[in-house]
Amino acid sequence: LERTFSIIKPDAVKRNLIGQIVSKLEQNGLKIIASKMVFLTVQEAKGFYAEHDGKPFFDTLIKNMTAGPIIVQVLEGDDAIAKNREIMGPTDPEKAPAGSIRKEYAISMQQNSVHGSDSPESAQREISYFFSEIEVF
Ligand code: ATP
Ligand code: MG
């Protein structure tokens, strides 16, 4: 059993897609073990995406991630990190396979509806960035 961290991004929250995205995660065998809505400040978004600081898309990324509230979640399941990224589909929605979250809901690379951790190390860091010990057990 593995844990991963997931975000439903502002573009999806705005378009009333929380329930449909959560359903896809649950239907594919991921269990939600922590969940809340937060509204990131620019500083908080920059800290979360620090690895992308300096890249050409960084400013737009921060703008989009602070455009409205987001849902942050901890997901648990067999092979949860890889499974979540498979359910999400690739970063570019045009390359995403039918049935994936990004194929069905994403607007563009920048407004691609979801985030998912890409390694056990980032999952651990990202969970700790948003959740305290009493929120995730
Ligand atoms: P995420 O980290 O959000 O789950 P990811 O792992 O698929 O997505 P990353 O390479 O970590 O993609 O990039 C983080 C986010 O930055 C992407 O989800 C996307 O919104 C944006 N992004 C990444 N690469 C590009 C790019 N080449 N052009 C525009 N936006 C990009
Ligand atoms: Mg990433």
Automatic annotation (TrEMBL):
Domain of life, source organism: Bacteria
GO biological process entries: CTP biosynthetic process; GTP biosynthetic process; UTP biosynthetic process
Keyword Cytoplasm attributed: yes
Residues covered by the Nucleoside diphosphate kinase-like domain: 1-137
InterPro entries reported in the protein's UniProt record: NDK-like_dom (IPR034907), NDK-like_dom_sf (IPR036850), Nucleoside_diP_kinase (IPR001564), Nucleoside_diP_kinase_AS (IPR023005)
Annotated catalysed reactions: a ribonucleoside 5'-diphosphate + ATP = a ribonucleoside 5'-triphosphate + ADP; a 2'-deoxyribonucleoside 5'-diphosphate + ATP = a 2'-deoxyribonucleoside 5'-triphosphate + ADP
Main enzyme class: transferase
Keywords, alphabetical: ATP-binding, Cytoplasm, Kinase, Magnesium, Metal-binding, Nucleotide metabolism, Nucleotide-binding, Phosphoprotein, Transferase
Enzyme Commission number(s) of this protein: 2.7.4.6
Secretion signal, residue range per the UniProt entry: none
Chief location of this protein within or outside the cell: cytoplasm
Amino-acid positions noted as binding ATP in the UniProt annotation, renumbered to this chain: K9, F57, R85, T91, R102, N112
Cofactor(s) for this UniProt protein: Mg(2+)
Pfam families in UniProt: NDK
GO cellular component: cytoplasm
Localization terms from the record: Cytoplasm
GO MF entries: ATP binding; metal ion binding; nucleoside diphosphate kinase activity
Active-site residue numbers: H115 (pros-phosphohistidine intermediate)
NCBIfam families: PRK00668.1 (NF001908)
Functional summary from the UniProt entry: Major role in the synthesis of nucleoside triphosphates other than ATP. The ATP gamma phosphate is transferred to the NDP beta phosphate via a ping-pong mechanism, using a phosphorylated active-site intermediate.
Family in the record: Belongs to the NDK family.
Subunit structure of this chain's protein: Homotetramer.
The protein, known as: Nucleoside diphosphate kinase
Species: Hydrogenovibrio crunogenus
Lineage, opening ranks: Bacteria, Pseudomonadati, Pseudomonadota, Gammaproteobacteria, Thiotrichales
